[in-house]
Every structure is written in C-alpha cells, then in structure tokens.
Fold:
Amino acid sequence: MITLYCDGSCRGNHDVTSDRPGGWAYMAIGDKSECNSGSTINASNNTMELMAIREGLKVCPPGVEVLVKSDSQFAIGCIGHLWGQKPWKVRQTNIVSLVAEITRHAMQNQLCVKAEYANDADPGIAVVHNLATAATF
Structure:
C-alpha cells in the first residue's frame, strides 16, 4: 500500500477560475518514499490539487493500492468514481481533462485508488502544503 499525500497552491487565487502562478506537490510513502513538486504559470488552485494527484499516481507501481490524502474536498470529490462514489460534476475543460488523465492512468496501471480528506494537522499534508506553496514562486 502507498499513501500519497497531495496538495496544490495558487497565488492570489480567491476565484477558482483564476489564471495565476500555481504549484503542486506530492509525497508517496510505501516500500520506497518519493517526493516531488512543480509549478505552472496559468493555474487555479483546483487544477494544482488535481495535478498533484496526477503526478503522484505516476510514480506508483502497477497493481498497488493507493490511499490519496488531500486537503481538497474538491479534488477528492472529482476522483470519487475511482472507488465507487459518484464523482462531482465539473464543467471546466482543464479540470475535466485532468480527471480523465488520472482515471486513464489509474485504470491502465490497475491501481486501486481510495482517497480521504486530511488537513494540516496531518504531518504529511503539512509537508506537501509547504512544498506546493514554495513551488508557486
């Protein structure tokens, strides 16, 4: 089992549709641990949250169970269909594309993905929060 902590950040993003500098980060903890972050110029907080999940799932070996932990109820809701929940409906093209990429990768690699909401009291979330925030500079 791999626990995948994910977070996204966007500078001055009070409106989820804003195009601002953004950062994402993940920390995968399993037999091996891996941590990474990145940034983009045109982002929203929601896209960064989903990019963190997408990038984190890419480092998970095929066939494993992955527990995604995120402080974004939006991101958790968007990928709910991966473990049998009804996914949230979204209309933004970039969000729909990211959810499709996450779904395709999870299915092609036979990942058993579950997710749970976590907050900054969880040390793993605190780590990725700091990394994602730093990546926005």
Q: What stands out?
A: The longest strand covers residues 33-43. The mean pLDDT is 87.
